[in-house]
TrEMBL record:
Domain Gfo/Idh/MocA-like oxidoreductase N-terminal: 67-149
GFO/IDH/MocA-like oxidoreductase domain mapped to chain residues: 165-289
Name of protein: Gfo/Idh/MocA-like oxidoreductase N-terminal domain-containing protein
Record Pfam families: GFO_IDH_MocA, GFO_IDH_MocA_C3
A GO MF term: nucleotide binding
PANTHER family membership: BILIVERDIN REDUCTASE A (PTHR43377)
Species: marine metagenome
């Protein structure tokens, strides 16, 4: 199977960090497990960044001991922000695509991939608007293409405990759920500086826990309100919220209503001991769940370095017996599951429609997109409640 990756950023290969990102290590692990990977075609708009990404890919192949054919574009100097269309035109089936560009470009790039009948994984959020999400859902259906969103938290065992116990009825009727989720200041002010004003912290982090509540409860969001503050980032010349606080009212299949509170920011100190600080509570008439997804039990303190609390579960290299490294975690699992599903489709073992209900498909992602769009409207309208009319 051929793979095209569109985007050469932090999530694909750790741009701007000493790490290797998530998408490329996951493809590497898929190949290691003996799956039929033919070649990776990889595009970013900037030749210099694509070249740097290729160097990282080569190092990754050395340290993992996993080799495969990879070609980056553009292969001429300069910037070409539409050249991926030419690669799509010549890409040979069986093939699939990864869309890992800034949020506001997801719809345009995913549309081009699906029109070439490529099964497509889009990084979250699917799109910032319901109109775009609905277009992608119907295009994928029309072309019989599997479209999924890389909502990796669905593979996190902490969240799976919540889902399993909720679905077993152990929490009773849901009453409320609460999430606080934040990252360091450098993410909006440096890493995403060129496109951060076309996103928001709710769209970047909060959307994960909107999706998790959908995944856990199968409920439908009915109304949303949001407040936010623009202080520190505004001082840095960026017209974007430091923090957003959002209430979402959900309706379960049985007709019960419960409230989700989301408190998100991306102005945490650079001294924070983890990339992400995240907590989730869920309270029902018969029980309570509390998950701390920052303090997962590992603390590292070395001379001249700040305290570090790494997440051993998301996406991390571990040493193998032969000294090479292998990447493990729910970030890896989410992507290799997509690749396995695409392989099953090509081997006629499953149809794309059969993945509805068990995967973060485009249709599932409509709920989280509706919430972030409604929250954005609420912020623009004096924090008024925004109602949604989504089917269950
Ligand atoms: N960084 C993460 O941890 C993470 C996690 C999950 C999902 N995502 C999502 O992945 C997407 C990309 O995030 P990232 O972290 O790789 O970001 P990034 O800024 O590091 O990379 C974005 C990449 O998109 C490409 N691109 C195409 N057109 C562009 C344009 N007009 N302006 C800027 N870049 C353009 C470039 O190759 C660039 O490297 C976003 O939608 C983000 O929400 C990121």
């Amino acid at each position: 199977m051929n793979i095209i990756i569109i985007g050469t950023g932090m999530y694909v290969t750790g741009r701007g960090t000493g790490e290797y990102g998530t998408i490329l290590p996951a493809i590497t692990e898929w190949k290691r497990s003996g799956k039929p990977l033919s070649k990776v075609y990889w595009w970013g708009p900037n030749r210099k960044h694509s070249f740097e990404a290729l160097q990282k890919a080569k190092t990754l192949q050395t340290i993992t001991g996993v080799q495969y054919d990879i070609e980056v574009f553009p292969n001429k100097d300069g910037i070409d922000d539409k050249a991926y269309l030419q690669i799509l035109n010549t890409l040979k089936q069986p093939a699939c695509s990864f869309v890992a560009v800034p949020d506001h470009l997801h719809c345009e790039v995913a549309t081009a991939c699906i029109k070439r009948d490529l099964h497509t994984l889009v990084v979250k959020p699917l799109t910032p608007t319901v109109e775009e999400a609905e277009k992608l859902i119907s295009l994928a259906k029309k072309n019989n293409v599997y479209g999924a969103v890389e909502f990796h938290k669905r593979w996190d065992r902490q969240n799976r405990i919540l889902r399993d116990d909720y679905q077993a009825g152990k929490f009773g009727i849901p009453l409320y759920t609460w999430t606080e989720y934040s990252q360091r200041k450098s993410i909006p002010s440096q890493t995403f500086r060129t496109w951060v004003e076309q996103s928001s912290i709710l769209q970047y982090l909060g959307v994960h826990y909107v999706d998790i509540i959908r995944y856990v409860t199968d409920a439908v969001p009915v109304k949303v309100m949001a407040c936010g503050q623009k202080e520190w980032l505004k001082e840095q010349g960026l017209d974007v919220h430091d923090s957003i606080q959002c209430l979402v009212e959900w309706r379960t299949r049985e007709g019960h209503h419960f409230i989700q509170t989301l408190l998100v920011n991306w102005i945490d100190s650079e001294q924070s001991s983890a990339m992400s600080d995240q907590k989730l509570k869920f309270v029902g008439t018969l029980g309570r769940y509390e998950g701390d997804q920052k303090e997962r039990g590992v603390r590292l303190l070395y001379e001249d370095q700040k305290l570090e609390e790494p997440n051993p579960d998301f996406c991390r290299p571990y040493q193998r017996c032969d000294q090479t490294l292998e990447w493990e975690g729910y970030g890896i699992h989410s992507i290799t599951t997509f690749l396995d599903d695409v392989n099953s489709i090509y081997e006629n073992r499953i149809q794309p429609a059969q993945l509805e209900g068990s995967r973060p498909t485009f249709s599932e992602a409509l709920y989280s997109t509706a919430v972030i769009e409604a929250a954005c409207k609420s912020l623009q309208n004096l924090s008024s409640w925004q109602h949604m009319a989504l089917a269950g």
